[in-house]
User: Which sequence fits this backbone?
């Protein structure tokens, strides 16, 4: 056992050191505490693509007045860039959806005299015969090939003019001329993803179902959201909370049809994840108050499962967190447009609300 004088001396030295350097020690403690948080933040940004609200608006604006679906456009960039959205150039990649079949002709006119009988008299007329010779034929898809074609047609390819709407309008007008035969086509989801491998095709299909649910410019405006990677499915199969079912799926309301079931209980009743999954959105929306959305994966048939938990009083998870079936994700509340404390619970299969009773024991 150490000598008491030694212990007192050591304690005095440590106390003196702390008094002298307390501000430095405080900074060091703060840094040590922040390291795990920093690591978690980096992991979230590496594992999950972060599309800001401004980027959502950009993608939408680039597809306005076209047949391109904005969610397919966002998903295309997410998948082809493997989440690394810092390299995305949406004003250019939007042209990957546009296919231009182009033909240009040289028209050779030849005068020819023909004779015909009019009122018993032989009449000779001169007509012009036209021969159409193909001088250029190509298929252009993507920003650079289409821009090169437009430059050859004396189209001003400034940034303002390089929008799908302006380009297709120009080509449609050009198609009215005899010298040109031009067809512009917007590629389908299947065509735009045909060069992806099978895993990326599945991911593409799953994200198309998920993305409209977490669109921050829509009715559900989450405070935090991610776009998840493809995961193996875990089917929702337990009750999200104890209580009394006060409203069933499919009931007709004044302005809509009920898309989930309502479970009433006391404020702060625990709300549990009904299957393993990833929290993809946390935040508030007008009618549904505090709401959590969890992605549970996509099966081999491309079927995607998402659950929604609304009117919460408190969140216990954040976007990007992995949860296991039965984990507490929030507490029951009365937020949003609600007539009493309850949970609104939805299951979305391929983006479409289905009756949760189909999955409950």
Assistant:
């Amino acid at each position: 056992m150490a000598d008491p004088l030694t212990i007192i001396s050591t304690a005095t030295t440590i106390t003196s050191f702390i008094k002298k350097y307390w501000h430095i020690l405080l900074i060091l403690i703060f840094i040590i505490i922040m390291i795990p948080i920093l690591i978690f933040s980096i992991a979230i940004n590496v594992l999950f693509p972060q599309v800001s609200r401004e980027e959502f608006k950009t993608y939408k604006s680039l597809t306005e007045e076209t047949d391109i679906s904005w969610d397919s456009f966002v998903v295309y960039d997410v998948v082809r860039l493997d989440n690394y959205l810092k390299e995305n150039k949406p004003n250019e990649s939007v042209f990957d959806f546009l296919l231009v079949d182009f033909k240009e002709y040289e028209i050779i006119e030849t005068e020819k005299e023909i004779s015909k009988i009019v009122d018993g008299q032989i009449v000779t007329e001169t007509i012009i015969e036209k021969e159409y010779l193909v001088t250029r034929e190509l298929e252009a898809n993507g920003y650079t090939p289409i821009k090169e074609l437009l430059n050859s047609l004396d189209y001003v390819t400034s940034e303002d003019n390089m929008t799908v709407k302006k380009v297709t309008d120009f080509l449609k007008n050009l198609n009215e001329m005899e010298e040109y035969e031009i067809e512009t086509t917007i590629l389908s989801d299947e065509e735009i993803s045909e060069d992806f491998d099978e895993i990326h095709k599945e991911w593409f299909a799953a994200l198309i179902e998920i993305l409209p649910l977490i669109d921050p410019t829509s009715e559900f405006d989450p405070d935090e959201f991610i776009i998840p990677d493809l995961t193996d499915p875990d089917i929702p199969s337990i009750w999200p909370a104890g209580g009394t079912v006060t409203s069933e799926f499919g009931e007709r309301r004044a302005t809509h049809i009920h898309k989930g079931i309502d479970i009433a209980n006391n404020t702060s009743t625990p709300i549990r994840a009904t299957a393993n999954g990833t929290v993809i959105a946390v935040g508030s929306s007008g009618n549904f108050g505090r709401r959590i959305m969890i992605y549970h994966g996509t099966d081999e048939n491309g079927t995607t499962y998402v659950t929604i938990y609304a009117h919460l009083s408190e969140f216990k998870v954040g976007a990007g967190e992995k949860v296991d079936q039965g984990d507490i994700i929030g507490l029951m509340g009365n937020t949003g447009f609600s007539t009493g404390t309850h949970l609104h619970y939805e299951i979305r299969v391929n983006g479409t609300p289905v009756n949760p009773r189909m999955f409950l024991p």
